[in-house]
Design brief:
- The protein is an alpha+beta fold.
- It has two domains: about 200 residues, PmbA/TldD superfamily (PmbA/TldD fold); about 240 residues, no CATH class.
- It is about 20% helix and about 35% strand.
- The strands form three sheets. Strands 7, 12, 13, 14, 15, 16, 17, 18 and 21 form a nine-stranded mixed sheet that branches. A six-stranded antiparallel sheet has the order 3-2-1-4-5-6. It has a six-stranded mixed sheet with strand order 10-9-8-11-20-19.
- The longest helix has 19 residues.
- The protein starts with a helix and ends in a 10-residue tail after the last strand.
């Protein structure tokens, strides 16, 4: 019996008969991460993590316990005794009968790297030795998960993840790109590396120019679009609606929330991206689903609790208490890479961002600061590179102003894009731009 199986059985034996309902999830992950500087490995770190999650309910009272420890059994036993001290939860709904299925994908090469901690071959495999001043991170992970519930779920899955980002420097210019996959896809990673270098080199050859604050046509790279579209998906969680953090709260399925050229799907069944799953935390089967189809809202994301509150059905997105996201997919458009600048015409091309903040969640009012290569485009050609700028607008306005999308899809995940997302470049016809309070800042 594995460590995961042994711990699940031990926890189940503690709670069975002492609560009305329970869901036990144990995830073990082994990872190796390398940090790069000047094309060489500067730091290597390895982890062997064991995460334990427990949902228990009795007499309408619920408790969620999470631990990262090798043996949480004593703490769990004490916690079960305390549930009577809680108030009945307005979010309580009975756990559903099990309907999920197991969905696993393991790449042997990624698993080998993650378990051995030996990442020495990554530099040569990706051809980083000849790239000069580059920095970044590469991570390989292998995980195994098991879920058991009092309503008959007993599922196990395992998977791998190969992800990273690279930042290239050419003088004062820089470019960055990321990748993510469940397989050791050297071609995918190399394509991202080449894109980062290409952006830095192109920016370094152009004069500097600072556009005036105003409203512009903007081409958003998948790096920035991934960050902003993820906020839209999170805002479609019924939990965000319930707690007042959704700019879709006043919308209903069937209403228009975006441009007719924009479609967004959630794809937990896509095992090429690492947040895949065949079951959620309630043991319900996941399914790929349209969230926004040609600008029309199709569904909010539910577990049984939010579904009960809102008179809906679970969508197989249960976290312990509120719905969660799996993988995301934005449908591509019809513009080739060579046609993107021509379609933009006159405007700005932003390739990366950070510090996305919401000033007003119900209105979707946000700002984010650009970083790395940012281009001024005139008559379909980049003519200058600009310093950091701030995008300041609302997400409903941005989604409604999407004019066109590229054909090429990129698989993105890094600090600013937490959910693995497959998406193209996106042209927005009208976006508010200002200058950040600090235009300089460190080269990070």
């Amino acid at each position: 019996m594995s460590v995961v199986d042994d711990l699940v059985s031990a926890i189940e034996s503690i709670v069975k008969g002492r609560v009305d309902e329970y869901s036990v999830k144990v995830v073990r992950s082994r990872s190796v991460m390398v940090k790069l500087a000047k094309g060489e490995i500067s730091v290597t770190q390895s982890w062997d993590d064991l995460g334990v999650g427990l949902y228990i309910a009795r007499d309408g009272k619920i408790a969620v316990l999470e631990y990262e420890t090798s043996d949480p059994r004593e703490a769990i036993s004490r916690s079960v005794e305390l549930i009577d001290k809680l108030e009945k939860s307005p979010l309580y709904a009975p756990l559903p009968d099990a309907s999920g299925e197991e969905l696993s994908f393991v790449d042997p090469r990624v698993k080998e790297i993650a378990e051995s901690g030996d990442a020495s071959g990554l530099i040569s495999d990706l051809g980083l030795e000849e790239l000069g001043e580059v920095a970044g991170m590469i991570e390989a992970s292998y995980w195994e998960k098991r879920l058991v519930t009092s309503k008959g779920a007993d599922f196990g899955e395992e998977g791998t993840s190969f992800e990273g980002y690279l930042r290239a420097f050419r003088g004062e210019a820089s470019g960055q790109w990321s990748w993510v996959s469940t397989s050791y896809d050297v071609g995918l990673a190399s394509r991202a590396v080449e894109k980062a270098v290409e952006l830095a080199e192109e920016c370094s050859k152009l004069p500097a120019e600072n556009p005036e604050p105003g409203r512009y046509r903007v081409l958003l790279s998948p790096m920035i679009a991934g960050n902003l579209i993820e906020t839209a998906a999170r805002s479609l969680s019924a939990g965000a609606v319930f707690f007042g953090f959704s700019y879709f709260a006043d919308k209903k399925p069937g209403e228009r929330v975006a441009s007719e050229v924009f479609s967004l799907r959630e794809t937990p069944r896509d095992s090429s991206l690492p947040f895949f799953a065949g079951f959620d935390d309630e043991g319900v089967a996941t399914r790929d689903k349209e969230l926004i189809s040609r600008g029309i809202l199709k569904t909010f994301l539910h577990n049984t609790k939010t579904a009960k509150l809102m008179g809906a059905q679970t969508t197989g997105n249960a976290g312990w208490v509120l719905p969660r996201l799996f993988n995301l997919h934005v449908e591509p458009g019809d513009l080739s890479d060579g046609e993107l600048f021509d379609a933009l015409g006159n405007g700005l091309y932003f390739t990366n961002n950070w510090y996305t903040r919401f000033q007003n969640y119900p209105q979707g009012q946000f700002s984010t600061v650009t970083r790395d290569a940012a281009f001024i485009v005139k008559n379909g050609k980049p003519v200058a590179c600009t310093k950091r700028l701030r995008i300041s607008d609302t997400m409903p306005s941005l989604l409604s102003s999407i004019e066109a999308l590229g054909k090429g899809l990129w698989q993105i995940k890094w600090w600013e894009v937490d959910v693995p997302t497959r998406l193209p470049h996106i042209i927005v016809s009208d976006l508010g731009i200002s200058r950040p309070s600090l235009e300089g800042g460190p080269r990070l």
